[in-house]
DNA sequence: AAGCATTGCAACCGCGATCCA
DNA sequence: TTGGATCGCGGTTGCAATGCT
């Protein structure tokens, strides 16, 4: 026997709520309080499912629901917390007063997940993981379809501002390797349609770096031993502490109370499989290491050898598929030349299973050579060739900046 | 002006967690 | 202890609105 329906569906209204329904629901809850959602519609005289009533109340009718644009500060918080928590929207919403999980989820799916794009390298290859802000990179990207409602209200959106200052525009088709485009993904079609401005590259990289630096700082907040924080000018506020508690609870098995780094310290022998992140490139000196309990899988096909931590894919989920599947799914990683691609969701994949964080200056072993990194960036053998080719747009500036 | 493509977001759905008799 | 009821969450869908051709 299947699960009983949450409510009697016959005769119930679905779809958008009317003003009258909103008023009825609001009046009833103000008079009787929240709860008893199953019986609420009947008692209130609404032809709605109890779940629908609850959703409507929580997301829109409650007095403390904050409407309007997500601010840049809120956006930062969402990005940071998503890095740490993944898609635990209700938890994230708990740290944004007046915002609902549904709103944040929608904002992420419609804005941030499209904008932030992670290019990652299988571990074991001294890999940077680079998060690129496609919206920024594609400064001249013209979107189709509706703009945000908030933006429409303001009626001042101008997606093409960056065009005006650029002399030469390269299409991404010219910039990306054929192979990369062929293995493009959801973001790929975005790239495909976006002109890439040489002039804006440096600014774009800096913007992304700044964005990621902020994320990294929060990750540092959450994961590094607290005694390291003052040296970085950081401290744990109340929200961070509670968040840390959540992380500890959810990742209990990953905590290593005996490690020399304290609450979330890294065993040094994990350095071999370390992952360098964008902030490393930026010189922030923060190294993230994989979690101890991550599974390392080996893929050796067609002569290509690489390893991948399956746990990287966000809260334990990992999908492996063909390029066409990846194309549908968003972020991606290659396992080399095997033709198989791993898809993941959003920037969180960089962090969620990277449980160990330490300032580089705490450990002299944690270093890398900029030249090697640049060499890797130039590698045209797989997806990273995308980066190489993008860098090609402004190689001199990028090289000077990278090695400075 | 019409039709199509695309987006943003409200709402729905299924399922696991929790409550409680 | 058990099982039904309820809650809460995250993923997904549907569609109105908008821009582009």
Automatic annotation (TrEMBL):
Organismal lineage: Eukaryota, Viridiplantae, Streptophyta, Embryophyta, Tracheophyta
Primary subcellular site in the record, as a coarse category: nucleus
Classification via InterPro entries: Homeodomain-like_sf, Myb_dom, Myb_TF_plants, SANT/Myb
PROSITE patterns: HTH_MYB (PS51294), MYB_LIKE (PS50090)
Subcellular location, record wording: Nucleus
Gene Ontology molecular-function annotations: DNA binding
Region: Disordered, residue numbers: 299-340
Key word DNA-binding present: yes
Keywords: DNA-binding, Nucleus, Transcription, Transcription regulation
Keyword Nucleotide-binding: no
Protein name: Uncharacterized protein
CDD domains reported in the protein's UniProt record: SANT
């Amino acid at each position: 026997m299947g699960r009983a329906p949450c409510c009697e569906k016959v005769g119930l209204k679905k779809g958008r709520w009317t003003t009258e329904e909103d008023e009825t629901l609001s009046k009833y809850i103000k008079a009787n309080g929240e709860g008893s959602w199953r019986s609420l519609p009947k008692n209130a005289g609404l032809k709605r499912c109890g779940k629908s009533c609850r959703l409507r109340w929580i997301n829109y009718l409650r007095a403390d629901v904050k409407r309007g644009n997500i601010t840049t500060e809120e956006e930062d918080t969402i990005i940071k917390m998503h890095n740490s928590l993944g898609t635990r929207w209700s938890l994230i919403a708990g740290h944004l007063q007046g915002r609902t999980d549904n709103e944040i989820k929608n904002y992420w799916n419609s804005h941030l997940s499209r904008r932030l794009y992670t290019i990652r390298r299988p571990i074991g290859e001294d890999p940077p993981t680079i998060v690129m802000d496609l919206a920024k990179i594609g400064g001249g990207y013209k979107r189709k379809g509706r703009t945000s409602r908030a933006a429409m209200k303001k009626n001042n959106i101008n997606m093409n501002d960056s065009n005006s200052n650029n002399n030469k525009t390269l299409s991404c088709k010219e910039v990306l390797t054929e192979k990369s485009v062929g293995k493009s993904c959801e973001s790929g079609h975005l790239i495909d349609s976006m002109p890439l401005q040489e002039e804006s590259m440096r600014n774009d990289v800096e913007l992304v770096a700044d964005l990621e630096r902020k994320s990294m700082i929060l990750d540092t907040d959450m994961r590094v031993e607290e005694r390291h924080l003052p040296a970085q000018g950081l401290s744990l506020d109340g929200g961070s502490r509670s968040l840390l508690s959540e992380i500890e609870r959810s990742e209990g098995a990953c905590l290593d109370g005996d490690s020399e780094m304290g609450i979330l310290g890294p065993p040094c022998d994990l350095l071999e499989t370390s992952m360098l992140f964008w902030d490393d490139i930026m010189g922030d000196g923060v190294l993230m290491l994989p979690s101890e309990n991550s599974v390392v899988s080996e893929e050796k096909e067609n002569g290509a050898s690489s390893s991948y931590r399956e746990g990287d894919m966000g809260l334990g989920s990992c999908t492996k598929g063909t390029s066409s599947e990846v194309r549908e799914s968003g972020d991606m990683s290659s396992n080399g030349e095997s033709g198989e691609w791993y898809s993941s969701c959003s920037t969180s994949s960089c962090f969620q299973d990277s449980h160990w964080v330490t300032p580089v200056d705490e450990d002299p072993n944690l270093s890398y050579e900029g030249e090697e990194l640049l060499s890797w960036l130039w590698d045209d053998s797989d997806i990273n060739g995308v980066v190489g080719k993008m860098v090609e747009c402004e190689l001199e500036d990028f090289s000077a900046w990278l090695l400075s």
